[in-house]
Amino acid sequence: MSVSTEKFQVIGPVDPIVAVLGGAITLPCSLSPAMNAENMELRWFRSIFSEVVFIYQNQQEQKEKQMPQYKGRTSLVRDFLTQGVAAVLIDRIQASDDGLYICFFKNGDFYGEAPLEVKVAGVGSDPQVHIEGPQEDGIHVVCTASGWFPKPQVQWRDPSREKFLAFSEVHAQDAEGLFSVEASLVVRDSSVRNVTCSIFNPILVQEKVKAIFIPEPFFPQASFPWMQVFVVSLTMLMLLSLGAGYFLQKEHSAKVQEWKVWKTLQQAKEEEEKEWKLAMKEADEFQRDLVSLGVCSLSAWRKAQLYADWRKEHFQIWSVTLDPDSAHPYLALSQENMRVTMKDNCEDLSDDRCSVLGAKGIMSGRCYWEIEISNRYLSKWAVGVCREDVDRNRKFIERPRKGFWAVGYTLGSGSVKPPQIS
Known about the structure:
Keywords: Immunoglobulin domain, Membrane, Signal, Transmembrane, Transmembrane helix
Order of helices and strands: EEEEEEEEEEEEEEEEEEHHHEEEEEEE
Strand order of the largest sheet: 2-10-9-4-5-6
Number of strands: 25
Transmembrane segments: 226-248
Largest sheet: 6 strands, mixed
Pfam family, one: V-set
Number of helices: 3
Structural class: alpha+beta
Helix content: 10-25%
Shape: flat
Protein name: Butyrophilin-like protein 1-like
InterPro entries: B30.2/SPRY, B30.2/SPRY_sf, BTN3A2-like_Ig-C, Butyrophylin_SPRY, ConA-like_dom_sf, Ig-like_dom, Ig-like_dom_sf, Ig-like_fold
Radius of gyration: 41 Å
């Protein structure tokens, strides 16, 4: 492991240095007998002298001749240079760092060198196992994994941990030098229900396994000649029947499809009308309840007016900022997204459900907010809360069954009605 000179010999590590992908390693060398190496030329290179990994000369690092793949990844550990011990640190280990290195010390006309072996290793992805389907007289099972270095070892095992000896294996390397593997196995014994694929890194002594269950119906069953003839005959008969009925079926399918579309539209229309009538009924019942509770409510309201801060004791004020992305095209928002108005050019308003959501939802707590409505007795409006998943793209009714809790106002015919609660 060393080369002698007249003045000293360079000694390197006897065993290979294991480096983990993405980590860091040091390549140490020392002089025997021990002497100060601060003023020596130190060089670490690969198989030939010009493949420079690191150079220390004139008491400083020389970067001009360094190989591009090592630039910015190497540094000298000089803590023990005065004792004849030096090491180069390599970080962000790559697959290409694997192999032989030479440690070279020169003092005047005398020099010495020693070899070092680096074994790079990395554990990649977990194996993925899937069933391809029946093949020959068994089931074809495939195991794949990637990102391993060096080339991993693959083993298939049955539930008793016995190894399958006969299987195919294909390896490939990517641009970074990492290995991917695909191992194929044909399971012919129908009594074997579980197989395990093992991917093993021999340097790090690390293993990743994946098992798969093979249902019994996947295994091909024994068949007789008469059965084969029957299957072929039945297949031909089915093909002839399908060919004869193809054109009739095509025309019939088109008519059936049109009828289904019409039926779906009719059902949707009936459902909307039914829901609308139910909503009107609920609104009338609620309105009657409001009238019956009017006396009590009036007394409570007068007490509340005497105590202006009752909201602040029981609720937290909620500042509402409107979300422009949720606004109906007929609505216009103010610059600060705090006010909403109907656009002036909306002469033909076919959709009477123009809505806009707040930018931030209420997740918990008891909140209140205050609104100011201009022209409130000459318009139809509602304000409140709704569930996040409500459908606002179709005609909707503001009531709890649909996910809406709102207070609103509807202009009556020739008279003014109080606000409606849905």
